[in-house]
Each structure stands twice: as structure tokens, then as C-alpha cells.
Amino acid sequence: MKDFVAGLLAGITSSVVVHPIDTIKVTMQYHSTHSIHKAIHLIIQLNSIKGFYRGLPPQLFLQCASQTLFYGSYASCLRFLGADLDSGKPISLLHNFLAGSFGGFVQAFPSCFLELLKIRLQTTNHQQEANVYQLFRHIMKTEGVRGLTRGLHATIWRDSPTY
Description:
GO molecular function, one term: transmembrane transporter activity
Pfam families: Mito_carr
Family: Belongs to the mitochondrial carrier (TC 2.A.29) family.
Membrane topology: Multi-pass membrane protein
Solcar repeats: 1-80, 91-163
Shape: elongated
Mean pLDDT: 83
Low-confidence stretches: none
Order of helices and strands: HHHHHHH
Helix content: over 70%
Distance between the termini: 20 Å
Largest sheet: none
């Protein structure tokens, strides 16, 4: 249980600290600019100072769900493989890789869905889809369930072996 709680706390902390920086990065990519200063100006111009936290709810949920699932499934897999996590003995590289890959695979599912919502919210202005619910409805109406899983295969390939 402590593994899941640690994942939850890691998700909250990383979301609040990293989200404004991620918003700048996404703005730079979306508006094809190499200037951080220009990206910051665009964010403020389009959405005021609140623009740095546009898309935070799905990001917060994403990080909490992903990190909780990762930490929990990673530790569960290690225990399944016979590692005694409380003894302080080192974990073999193979067991660490297998457990990390399993954890990455499990967390890729909520990650894919919620990253899609986060990125779409970060790249819209305040006059477009205003909240997660409206965006979710719009995607379901125009793209269906497949639209929500766009990029799942790439997310699995990105996260499974790298975790």
C-alpha cells in the first residue's frame, strides 16, 4: 500500500512543479517558435497568467494515476519475481528491468488518454474547449473512442522498456 501512496504523492508534486514548464514546451512546439520568451508571451496573451496551468486537472490526474499505478505495479511485480523489498538486498538488473517494463506498460493506458486531453487543453485558447468535460465530449463526438486512444501503441513502446 505504501508503494501506491508514494506514487500518488510523486504524481501531485511533479504535476504542480513541472506543468508550467511543460506548457511552455508545448506552446513552443505548437506555435513553431524557438524562443522561450515568445512562448511565455503567447501563453499570457492568449490565456492570462492562468494559461500556465491550463490543462493541469488532467495532468494532475494523469500523474497521480500513472505514478500510483507504476509504483504499485513495479513493487508488485518485484514481489512476484521473489524480491524481498524490505530486506534492503539489491535487486537484480533483470528483475528491475522486468518490473519496470511491467510498470511502464500498466501506466501507459491512463497516460495516453490523459496526455491527449492535457496537450489539447494546452494548445487551445480560452475561447475554444474550455474544460476537460467539453473537450472529452468533443473528441467522443468527432473521433469516437479511437480518438481517446490515439498514440497508445507509441506510449506503450515509449514507457514499457524505459521505466
